[in-house]
Amino acid sequence: MTAAPAVELRGVWVIYHQRPVLEDIDLVIPPGRYVGIIGPNGAGKSTLLKVVLGLIPPARGVVRVFGEPPARLRRSGQLLGYLPQKLMSQPQFPVTVLEVVLMGRYGRIGLGRWPGPGDREAALAKLRRLRIEHLADRPIGALSGGELQRVFIARALVVEPRLLVMDEPTISLDACAQDDLFEMLHDLKEELDLTVLVVSHDIGAVARHVEEVVCLNRRLYVHEPPPIGRLALERTFGCSVEYLFHGEIPHRVVRRDE
Ligand SMILES: Nc1ncnc2c1ncn2[C@@H]1O[C@H](COP(=O)(O)OP(=O)(O)OP(=O)(O)O)[C@@H](O)[C@H]1O
Ligand SMILES: [Mg+2]
User: Is the pLDDT of residue 143 over 80?
Assistant: First the structure.
């Protein structure tokens, strides 16, 4: 028996107010791949991730994650780890970092039950992994943007997912931390046998780190291993894209034609 794809979208459409946001998307990702999704603002990247997670039902088309409808997997509290693009805007709740990470276990342990020592150890292990164990007892409101970002990544990981979906995980991180995170996602993928989907505006980092790139702008333009050609980028972004090459890697993206 061959394993089901980690992600399978067939003829997927999402329509808001009669306007298609995703058009006829076909996408198949085998298990164990590290995939970057790029595209301009409003391209439908976050919407695509939410469709994969079963948070948005498509108007048309079929979505399967490891061969199952994603909403069913999500209800079981397993397999899917998610870092949303919009984190807490006002993280002033009186909860600690460790408690926030433990929330990622609730799907596994069931509502109304308390996390046990095993859950606590799993949460601490993820904090250690992200090198923020020292923050475990801090109130969540007393963190920098980059620290908060790591806490939410730890929360996505503590689910112990088979599919990890990250929507702009590097947004609050400094340049070194951004590169570290892409690298760490690669290591985690290998160690934990994950499939990783990551949306990023950092085309250079995507090209350096991932195994497959998806170029999305309402339609899916390209799905292939990096490097991404200039034409593909221009078609996706709908504007002239200049980039400097360091070897084969697009290094920088600038200039929008008037
Ligand atoms: N709930 C909604 N109702 C109506 N339109 C929506 C809704 N959610 C998203 N949209 C629209 O769908 C389009 C795609 O949004 P989406 O958030 O998926 O884009 P994105 O590629 O993630 O953009 P960004 O890079 O800015 O995060 C946008 O035009 C957005 O305004
Ligand atoms: Mg988005």
Answer: yes
